[in-house]
Amino acid sequence: RGYPCVLHDLEPKLMPARTAPAEREHEERWRQACFLAIDVETTGLSPACDRVIEVAWVRFAGGRPAHEHSSLCRVDVPIPRVVRELTRITPAALGHAPTFAELAPGLLDALAGVDFAVAYNATFDVGFLRAELLRSGHSLPVMHFLDPLAWSRRLTPSARGHRLVDVCKRHGVTLDGAHRALADARAAGELALRLGAALRVRP
Fold first, then answer.
1. Nearest residue to 189 via CA among 146, 128, 134
2. H or E element: which one contains 122?
3. What is the pLDDT, as a whole number, of residue 199?
4. Burial level of 41, CB count in 10 A (0-12/13-18/19+)?
5. CA–CA gap between residue 37 and residue 51 (Å, rounded)
6. CA 124/CA 150 separation, integer angstroms
7. Which residues of the chain have pLDDT under 70?
8. Could you give the 3-state DSSP secondary structure of residue 177?
9. For residue 2, what pLDDT is reported?
10. Phi/psi of residue 181, each to 5°?
C-alpha cells in the first residue's frame, strides 16, 4: 500500500504578507480550526520491529483542548531499559492495558471528526501509527499531518535544540511530564496554535 498520509509542506501554504485585517483573519482561522494532536511512546525507533506502548490524542477546537484520550498499550515484545527509564513505563504497567488493536477504532473515529492532525516529529508518529493500524487490519486515513518541529526549525533555525521540551520552553508552552504521550500530545497541539500563527501557516 502507498503511504497513507500527507506531511504538510510549509512553503505553498504560507499566507501572504501581513496586514492587520489579514492577521486577524488568520488568527481567527486557527481559533476555529478543529484538529487532533497525537503522540506515541514506543519500544524503539523502527515501526517494523518495535511497538507502541502508549498512545494519546487531544482534540483541539476553538483554540483550546476540547477532548483527550490516553492509554497504555499491551505488547508482546520487551521494553528496553532506556525506554523504561525515559518514559517510566514498565512491563507490569502494561499487563492489563488494552492492545493497540482494541484502541484503533477510537483513534480512527477521532481522526474522522477533525480537519487535520498534528504530531511533533510527525514522520516518527505517523510511521508507528501506520504500522500498528496495519497490524490491526486498518489503515491510516489520507489526511494532512502538520509538524511543529518543521515550523520550529524554520522559525528559529539557529536555535541549539529542537527537542519538544526545548521548543516548548522557547515559546512558553507548558510541558509537564515529557516523554509521556498525553503530555507530549497536548504540547504539540499548543505549539501548532502558536507556531502556525507566527509563521502564517494555513490551518
1. 146
2. helix 122-135
3. 79
4. buried
5. 20
6. 13
7. 1-23
8. coil
9. 33
10. -60, -45
Residue 130: C-alpha distances to residues 71, 134, 140 (Å): 18, 6, 6
How far apart are alpha carbons 38 and 123 in whole angstroms?
Answer: 12
Q: Are 37 and 192 in contact (CB under 8 A)?
A: yes
* Cell numbers at 23, concatenated: 492577521
CB 56 within 8 A of CB 65: no
Tracing cell 483554540 back to the chain, one arrives at 63
What is the structure's pLDDT at 18? Answer: 52
Phi, psi at 77, each rounded to 5° = -125, 155
pLDDT given for residue 1 in this prediction? 31
Gyration radius of the chain's alpha carbons = 17
Sheet strand arrangement including 144-146? 6-7, 144-146, 116-118, 35-42, 52-61, 64-72
pLDDT of residue 196: 85
Residue showing cell 488493536? 101
Give every CB contact of residue 178 below 8 A, 6+ residues apart in sequence. Answer: 164, 165, 184, 187
Judged on CB neighbours under 10 Å (0-12, 13-18, 19+), 125 is: buried
Task: Indicate the helix (H) or strand (E) that contains 86.
Answer: helix 81-87
Provide the 10 A C-beta neighbour count for residue 82. Answer: 9
